[in-house]
Specification:
Helix content is about 25%, strand content about 25%. It has about 325 residues and is an alpha+beta fold. May be required for ribosome biogenesis.
Length: about 325
């Protein structure tokens, strides 16, 4: 019957055989035209992936328990962070040149406790409600900060007034479509000025399980993963916004965590439950910053001299290359 004159026994091509649809090996869910069906199949595929991953994890755990002390050490997972391309500007903690530069830069008086920070927080022209509330909440996080709402006044006119009133830093919150989307931080009186793109802004009322309103105590400041020379400059610039005599009785901490050149800000209150356990409550607000440029001197959009500018097509050639 193999001469092509009739169906082969056991073959699925016979008249009485059930019709089965066989997908080609290269079939992808994205090829499904129907949107609802495609979404349903994708969810099923993700669910199956989670089940397989959980089953493999349980299997490996049982094998390790069976082997006991003879179990091999756990493999370190590969991540973009730990496979980072080495940057020649990475700072050695014992580098004397870096230590000298930091002892003589614009922020040295703050770290030596010779100058107390005084911050002016302002907005773009005609800010909307969300931006206004964000500025007010940011002022409760940064001690000795004052909110001023611009009314068509240019930054080049605001900066001399800030210097005359002994402000040490100027923060400008920009917005687009009623959502805060940019932050300009200018150190007074001689700079530098950093331009950040802002995203993922969450006000206090939008944070689940938030704590009570923050107190007026000076918070502690934590800086994570600012490892390069540029990262050190940005980290010192952010740390100089806070007085360097934290009041530990307030149990409040402001964290700037750098991961893949995104700076995540969080504000928490903590409590020691025991010698090994610590409880934390997020107070808010929270936001994420992405450095766009670092400019010498104060804000000058036309004639300013830039130390560093983020150029996407030239700098973002590798996913494992980071600058902070």
């Amino acid at each position: 019957a193999g001469d092509g004159s009739g169906p082969v026994p056991g073959d699925a091509t016979g008249p009485s055989a059930p019709q089965r649809v066989l997908f080609p090996p290269t079939f992808s869910v994205s090829e499904i035209k129907n949107k609802q069906r495609r979404h349903f199949m994708f969810l099923r595929w993700k669910q199956q992936q989670r089940k397989e991953k959980l089953a493999l994890k349980k299997k490996r755990k049982k094998e390790r328990e069976a082997l006991g002390d003879k179990a091999p050490p756990k493999a370190v997972p590969k991540t973009i962070e730990n496979q980072r391309v080495y940057d020649e500007t990475t700072v050695d903690p014992n580098d004397e040149e870096v230590a000298f530069d930091e002892a003589t830069d614009e922020f040295a008086p703050y770290f030596n406790r010779q100058t107390v920070p005084k911050i002016l927080i302002t907005t773009s022209d005609r800010p909307h409600g969300r931006t206004v509330r964000f500025c007010e909440q940011l002022a409760t996080v940064i001690p000795n900060s004052h909110v001023y709402y611009r009314r068509g006044l240019a930054l080049k006119r605001i900066i001399p007034q800030c210097i005359a009133r002994d402000f040490t830093d100027l923060i400008v919150i920009n917005e687009d479509r009623k959502i805060p989307n940019g932050l300009v931080l200018s150190h007074l009186p001689d700079g530098p000025t950093a331009h950040f793109r802002m995203s993922s802004v969450r006000l206090r009322k939008e944070i689940k399980c938030k704590g009570k309103e923050p107190t007026e105590h000076v918070p502690e400041v934590i800086l994570n993963n600012f490892t390069t020379r540029l990262g050190h400059s940005i980290g010192r610039m952010l740390a100089a916004l806070f007085p360097h005599d934290p009041q530990f009785i307030g149990r409040q901490v402001a964290t700037f965590h750098n991961q893949r050149d995104y700076i995540f800000f969080r504000f928490h209150r903590y409590i020691f439950k025991s010698e090994k356990k610590v409880g934390i409550q997020e107070l808010g607000p929270r936001f994420t910053l992405k450095l766009r440029s670092l400019q010498k001197g104060t804000f000058d959009s036309k004639f300013g001299e830039y130390e560093w500018i983020h150029k996407r097509r030239e700098m973002d050639t590798s996913r494992r290359k980071f600058h902070l």
